Amino acid sequence: MITFYKLTIIAICYFCLQSCSLQSPEEIVAPETETYNSTIKSCDCIDNKSDDYRIEATINGEKLCFNKKDRPFKIDKWLKMDWGSTITMYRYNLDSTLKLSIQYYRPNFKKQALPYTIDKNNTQYCEVVEVSVLNFKPYKFSVGSTWDDSRFSALTSVTNLSVSIISFKDNIIEGTFAGDFYNGSPQNFKVTNGYFKTKLEVNDMRTAALTSP
User: Fold this and answer.
1) Tally of domains in the chain
2) SS3 content of the chain, % helix, strand, coil (to 5)
3) pLDDT tens-digit series, residues 149-185
């Protein structure tokens, strides 16, 4: 009985080796390689004659304009708290497939001469600006992979992102930005000619402001 099992195993191994040896090089399929194709394409601004508030940028050579607002209660704000303050602004592109947001933590530009630049060489006041792009129809959604262009961002504190505030009057803030954006993988997105202009709603929630007459 043991000899029968041994012969059976030998026969199975023989046929497996034969089938492998008979496969020609043409029948061996190599792993498929793909070319990265970003869905981020150039787009124009919405024709809006009521104001010129917008965010613009050129991403990997594609000129983009973001001036589509969200719902009314989602507005650009400067929230001031006892522990610090944050400026938040964002806009969508024409068909709402992309959203660009800017968050400016612990802003100190009002105490400085304009234009005022925030980058990783300017750490005196612990200011940080994060600029990010959310893509609602990515080429391939796989977070952190080289195919991921669903969300990518840059921080002035750790990347080469540079943000400059060039004007602030009547709560209207205007500035520029540029740098390399990342998505958690080696894939990076070069952003140039960044520009923003919007009017901020200032919410002062500091204790002194709330208790003052």
Assistant:
1) 1
2) 15, 40, 45
3) 788 889 999 899 999 999 999 999 999 999 998 876 6
Residue 101 pLDDT level (bands cut at 50, 70, 90): very high
Domain that holds residue 151: 54-211
User: For position 4, what pLDDT does the model report?
Assistant: 47
**Residue 205 is encoded by which pair of tokens?**
């929630």
Residue 130 lies in a domain: yes
Q: How far apart are the first and last CA of the chain?
A: 101
Domain contains 125: yes
pTM of the model: 0.76
Say how many CA atoms lie within 13 Å of 96 toward its Cβ. 3
The pairing of beta strand 201-204 with beta strand 77-81:
parallel
Q: Which two tokens stand for residue 138?
A: 């990515």
Alpha-carbon distance of 130 to 189, in angstroms, equals 15
User: In the chain, what's the furthest Cα-to-Cα distance?
Assistant: 101
H/E segment holding residue 173: strand 172-182
What's the Cα-to-Cα distance from 20 to each of 9, 30, 176, rounded to whole Å? 17, 16, 62
Mapping DSSP onto H, E and C, the string for 28-87 reads: CCCCCCCCCCCCCCCCCCCCCCCCCCEEEEEECCEEEEECECCCCCCCCEEEEECCEEEE
**Domain-embedded: residue 7:** no
Measured in whole angstroms, how far is the alpha carbon of residue 12 from the centre of its chain? 55
Task: Give the angle subtended at the CA of 75 by the CAs of 159 and 48, to the nearest 5°.
Answer: 95
Residue 105 lies in a domain: yes
